[in-house]
Design brief:
Blueprint: E1 4-11, H1 14-31, E2 34-40, H2 43-47, H3 64-88, E3 92-96, H4 99-112, E4 118-121, H5 132-137, E5 143-146, H6 151-157, E6 163-165, H7 174-186, E7 194-199, H8 204-224, E8 228-234, H9 239-246, E9 254-257, H10 259-268, E10 271-275, H11 278-286, E11 290-294, H12 298-304, H13 315-320, E12 327-329, H14 335-345, H15 350-366, H16 372-384
Parallel strand pairs: 1-2, 1-3, 3-4, 4-5, 5-6, 7-8, 7-10, 8-9, 10-11, 11-12
Helix pairs in contact: 1-16, 3-4, 7-10, 8-9, 8-14
Length: 390
C-alpha cells in the first residue's frame, strides 16, 4: 500500500460532515498511513485535518426558495471546487448526501479527470421521487454506500451504480446505545409523571412552520391531561429562534441545547411529537412512540410533492414496509389530531403498545454484522488503489 493517500471529501451539511469524519477515522485505522484531506466539510472533518475549500454554510441550505436565490453562487462554487479536485488528483472522491450539490461536483470532476474513482455515501432518495436519477448516476458514480437496508435492491432495480449496505451510523452511536440501555433498565413504561419530547426540526424553515401548531397541540393535550412535562431539545445555531417561538406557546417547554442534553431527554421520554426526518429513526431505535408532521414551502407543495412516488415519508415506516408511525403533512398538520395521538401514548393504550412493538423490528431490519464505518472502508479500499497513474 502507498505511504500516503489523498482523499477528496464533499460533505454538503453537518450530518454528512459527521459521516465523513467517521469514515476517515475508520480508514486511518485500516490503512495505517497518512491521509491528506481536501474538499468541503465542517468541524468534524476539520478535526481530522480537512481545510475546507469554503465554509460549509455556503451550501448548507434547504428549501427550493433558498436554493433558487443562491443558485448563481452555488454554480460558481461547483466549478471552483471541481477544478480544484481534478487538479489535485486524489486517490478517490467521496461525496456525501446533499445530491443537488455533490452530484454536480462529481459529474464535473468525472468530465475533467475520468481516472478519479467516485464513491457516493448515502444515496439520493430515488425510491421516493425522480427515480430516473439512479440510472443517470452510472456515468459519474462508481459505487454507492447506502444506509437503509432496502436501497441496494432499489439501486439494482432502477439500474443504478453497484451499491453496498453499510448500515446506519446510528446503529453504533454510543449515545443512542446508552439511551437504549437506560430505557431497558427503567422498564417499558414509567409510573408517575409523563414526559413528552417536542422535536420541531433543526432548520429554521422547519421550526417556523411547525412550532406554532406544535404549541397548540401541546395546549390541547394539557386540556385533556396535566400529568406530563415537555422537553424541547434543540441545537445552538437555532436556539434563540426556538426560544422566541416557544415563548409564544401557552404551555412553556423545558428547552435543552446540544446533543448530550437531547440524548438525556430521550431516556425518560414517553412520547414524541417530531418533524419528519432522521430524528424519527433515532426515536424508533430508542423505542419511543411518536407522531410525525411536516410542512413544505409553496414550490415543493405545488411542483415536487405531486411527483413523489413513495407511500410514506417516515423512515420507520419505509424500513418496516408498513405504517408503524402516524404522519401528517401541510394542511393536515392540525393540533387536534397531534394531541390525540400523544394522549394515547401517555397511557398504556393499545396504540402505544402496538407502535412500541413494531418499532423493535426497525433495529432487527437494520442490523449489520460490523460497524458501518468498517463496512464502508472495506468497500472503498479497492477504489483507493485503482488509479492507473498511482
Amino acid at each position: 500500500m502507498a505511504d500516503r493517500l489523498k482523499l477528496a471529501v464533499i460533505a454538503g451539511e453537518e450530518s454528512g460532515d459527521l459521516l465523513g469524519a467517521d469514515l476517515v477515522l475508520a480508514l486511518r485505522d485500516k490503512v495505517r498511513c497518512a491521509i491528506d484531506l481536501i474538499g468541503i466539510g465542517g468541524k468534524h472533518l476539520a478535526a481530522e485535518g480537512l481545510k475546507s475549500f469554503f465554509d460549509l454554510d455556503e451550501i448548507a441550505i434547504m428549501g427550493i426558495d433558498a436554493i433558487l436565490k443562491k443558485m448563481p453562487r452555488l454554480l460558481k462554487l461547483i466549478r471552483q471546487v471541481s477544478f480544484f479536485i481534478a487538479h489535485e488528483k486524489p486517490n478517490c472522491l467521496i461525496i456525501i448526501d446533499s445530491p443537488e450539490f455533490t452530484h454536480r461536483v462529481a459529474r464535473k470532476v468525472r468530465g475533467l479527470n475520468p481516472t478519479i474513482p467516485i464513491i457516493n455515501y448515502i444515496a439520493p432518495s430515488v425510491w421516493a421521487w425522480r427515480s430516473q436519477r439512479a440510472g443517470g448516476m452510472r456515468s459519474f458514480i462508481d459505487h454507492v454506500l447506502v444506509v437503509l437496508p432496502f436501497e441496494v435492491e432499489v439501486m439494482k432495480t432502477l439500474r443504478g451504480p453497484p451499491a453496498t449496505y453499510v448500515g446506519h451510523r446510528l446503529l453504533s452511536c454510543k449515545a443512542l446505545l446508552d439511551v437504549c440501555s437506560e430505557r431497558e433498565k427503567r422498564g417499558a413504561f414509567l409510573k408517575g409523571s409523563r414526559t413528552v419530547l417536542v422535536l420541531p426540526g433543526s432548520r429554521r424553515f422547519e421550526i417556523r412552520r411547525l412550532m406554532p401548531v406544535f404549541g397548540q397541540a401541546i395546549k390541547e393535550l394539557r386540556n385533556k391531561t396535566s400529568d406530563f412535562k415537555i422537553i424541547l431539545p434543540t441545537i445552538p445555531r437555532i436556539e434563540l429562534e426556538v426560544r422566541a417561538l416557544a415563548g409564544l406557546w401557552p404551555i412553556k417547554p423545558d428547552i435543552v441545547v446540544g446533543e448530550e442534553e437531547k440524548w438525556k431527554a430521550f431516556i425518560d421520554a414517553d412520547a414524541a411529537l417530531a418533524a419528519s426526518g432522521t430524528v424519527s429513526l433515532e426515536l424508533a431505535l430508542c423505542g419511543i412512540p411518536m407522531v410525525l408532521a411536516y410542512r413544505v414551502d409553496w414550490f415543493s407543495k405545488k411542483f415536487i410533492m405531486p411527483r413523489i412516488t413513495c407511500w410514506s415519508a417516515a423512515l420507520p415506516n419505509i424500513i418496516a414496509d408498513q405504517p408503524v408511525v402516524p404522519e401528517y403533512f401541510n394542511e393536515f398538520v392540525r393540533p387536534g389530531i397531534l394531541s390525540r395521538h400523544l394522549e394515547s401514548y401517555l397511557t398504556n393504550s393499545l396504540s402505544r403498545r402496538a407502535q412500541v412493538e413494531n418499532l423493535k423490528r426497525i433495529s432487527v431490519l437494520m442490523h449489520t454484522a460490523k460497524p458501518s464505518g468498517e463496512i464502508a472502508v472495506e468497500t472503498i479500499l479497492p477504489f483507493l488503489y485503482k488509479r492507473p497513474d498511482i
